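Section 5.1 Outputs to date
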Amino acid sequence: MKNAGMSDKGRSNTFIRALPLLLICLAAAGLRIWLLREPRVVWGDEPFYLWLGRNWITGQGFSFTGHADVHHAPLFPMLSGLLYLVTGDMARASEVLYVLFGALLVLPMYAIGTEVYDRRTGYVAAVLTAVFPPLTAGILHWGTMTEALYMFFVYSGLWAGLRTLRPLWRKAVPAQPGEAPAEDAFAAQRQDPWWAYALAGLCFGLAYLTRPEGIGYAVVVGAFIVLLRAVRRRLWEKALWLKLLLMVAAFALAFVPYAYYVYLQTGAFMVSEKVGVTYLTCLGLVHGDTAAFDRATWGLDSTGLETFFFSPESYDVSMLQLVLADLRSFALIIVTNALDFVKTLIGWTMLPYLLLPAVFLGLFRRGWTRERTWKELYLVASFLPTMAFMFFFIQERYIVAMLPVFILWIAAGLLELSDWLMGTWVLLRSPAEGPYWHMPAGLRVACEALPVLLIVAGLLALHPRVVAEVTNVGSVRMEHRWVGEALHDRLTRDTVLMSRYPAIAFYADTRWVPTPNASWPEILTYARHKGVHYMAIDERELRYRPQLANLVTGEQVPAELERVYQSTVDGERMTVYRLVE
């Protein structure tokens, strides 16, 4: 009966701890659903992922361009494809993943906050994660929708990595003379677990299958485990290397099948086929030259029958060779991107300036013990995979994976402020000489919650501004959706539509090929080869494709084109032509 009573008490405590997390998850999901009430544009890479998922699940192969795709990681497409079977709507499938994994990110954030600091910090970090604008409005409009899925696996893996280190924080209990030291009871109950190594490896493998840079977390966490073990002189414990092998095997379970698939398509084993071509195409973006980026990405390859981004010729681009060929440009890229990194990270869209004091308060209000030092170094080390984007180009969606660590520091800082508020209130009420005044429980909770509630209210109020900023991008136009929807009923799914912006074909629910940055005769040859039926052009394209001006103005239109649609919104024209024989 005693054991049964203890079991019931244990279950009750578990439920009490889980209930707040459940409510926070539901609030996070509710906020994301609320943000979906306004129409959005499926643009950028998101249509690619969704087409890949639908084609894969419907037996058309992992492709949307006519040949096997190796540019885009497969996990998001596969999950969206499975959801497409249920929803029958690609955009809705994407939104389900955004809501589900955006809400689930609360759980590893709570776990890491509890592991590094304490349970209070874990709860506050979970609350902030639920409402932080880049994790809600930003992800929704950045043009990939992979970030929520990616960060869930990254931070689940980071928590599992922390869990493998827990025994190293515990000290031996001093023994009586003549006796061997006994382990602390807490450490004895929670020994270095095999499952944590397996979970870390698997989560980082799934993160890699979402975005290739996820492989960096496996390297960083593995190296940190080995380093800390070496410092603590526990590197040669018998089971450690078997556990590390388990971590590698769990990562390989996700990594190897896709790496082999890429090998079959490219003839080489590689972490990511995109490294070289990404460096090449981003050279223009780093210098603010969008036209150079457009030419490098969407220019024609040597055959004239494929754009460079989707050409097999892009497989052979070596970043190392490009760097060695022009070290001066590489150095300039690093300096430029380092400055852009700070400017992009700190601002209203990502990390608001007003939260920086909370970050510093959380980090430096109290002195660090050895344990705290190693834990903070672990969090800082988790920045390394994201910092790799300084070799390429800096955008908010590239570096958003860093933000949850800042959220942990903000949570710790807000609790320091709460403690100061409570301590000040108590000392103000206590007489100079006399009994110490004890704060009532209700007032204590109010003082603890007040700074957090004020920040949450501010973050919620910031959402409209963040939405306006992340949608104020040249490639994001609601007109692309409207034109696609206008064409939907007149085109079939087998119709091939050529456009610079894939959103048009996505909403028309038809096949898409990119319009190359080339002369009209070259475009026509390419279009005939691709079986193009229609061509859509946006006046905004003339900023980096001035050679197509006559297609927008309607003057001297080539005989091969017949205009079937035109609209003007905010002074910018959208035109659709039909290719005639």
